[in-house]
Amino acid sequence: MVPESDDDLLEDTEHLESRESNEKIVVQNYRPPQMTWSQLPQVIERGILQTLSTEERKRQEAIFEIIVSEFSYQHSLNVLINMFKNSKELQKTMTTTEHHHLFSNICDIQEASKRFFDELETRHQDNPVIRDISDIVERHATHHFDAYIVYCSNEMYQQRTLQKLLISNTQFKEVLQQIQSKPECGGLPIISFLILPMQRVTRLPLLVDTICQKTNRFQREYDAATHALKAISKLVKSCNEGAHKMERTEQMFTIQTQLEFGKIKGFPLISTSRWLQKRGELLTFAEESGIFSKVFGKQTSFLFLFNDVLIITRKRSEESYTVQDYATLDQLEVEALENNDSPHSPPGKGTGGSTPSNHLFKITMKKNNAGELEHMVFGSQSLSDRARWIDALLKKDDDRISKEGLQQVEIVKAHLAKQPDELSLQQADVVVILQRVDGWYHGERIRDWERGWFPESCAKEITNHIAVRRNVQRMERLRIETDV
Known about the structure:
This protein is of the alpha+beta class. The protein is 43% helix and 18% strand. It has 15 helices and 14 strands. Strands 1, 2, 3, 4, 5, 6, 7, 8 and 9 form a 9-stranded mixed sheet that branches. A 5-stranded antiparallel sheet has the order 13-12-11-10-14. The N terminus is likely disordered.
């Protein structure tokens, strides 16, 4: 079982040593057997354990975890480069551009990791009781880890290229399967290796924070650890922004070319501060004398919801949409319509209990594109879809609400977001649940406070009350310590 909190790895040395080694690292199922700090021959032979307090022993374990996990990460990067990137057979199945998009600057990442590990290892070899590594972490995060920003910014092209090759390139798929079946790959698919840099860079703040937890606040090492935490958190923020910026810029230009405003006043869509939050097709209902009825012919509207404006369109094709209306989010009111508010279908067109007519919500535009009041009612395919639309439209400002008492889950199966309002998750991520509807969770990821929806099936509830409380404390502490 994967630990429910990073602290679980350090609270009890015997408990730690009995864990399977592959349960502590980013690459969940691919990690060579390794020792803990307390198991090192030089530590045992010199009787060091007997000279240290319990708190200092835990701090040494936390420091050593960064060193040994970087070594394991390097090993997996070598597999990615040697087995996949450098494969002549695989390279022949794709274009030079596809090869670049797939592997990006992974060799720069490998070199950055090697320099980082070499310094960590030298510090460890100087003395098995390591006074500190925070200066090394801060220096590399500040000056030598820019390659991670480039790699993360390329993530959209990487995923798109891999998906395209797997679907349309039979030769690529065959050669890839041959490589993946080799023992060096540990039975893992290429995507498990391609996402390693993203996983590693987002994991480092948690590892550094563990050092902060195990260091006395009145020691100078504590200040050094908090500075390192801020530096690595700033790097992660830049990685996230790089990934979002590339995707959002391309997406906004594409949508702009697809929208036709016709007689409606045009809206300048492209802006560096605007991005898509949700899009999708919904059934449209009309209101007559207080009764909602489905528009004749099952008319649908296609909605584009951005972080500051809602645009309602009629879909003409996959690449063409006619704008019907729009309004800024501060001019919107949204409410769910329950069963007793359900529409009445035209005669002879009754609806069953599982149809979208049971999942309605009403949007009131206090000022639409013409400055007029407008009411619209839409029907979604499921309760969860309605909840997701309402959540996105309401634009709740509840970042500072207490997470005490809220359900927490651990991700047991990775999830890749398919819609803008979904949350991509790695195995072992911990998420605080804000809402649960119809097989879907809406939650906030502890390591970076990103929010989104994900299937209930990829998570399991954390039932250990101590771990739950500790996760909340860590979440709040990280929010303060990493305010970058």
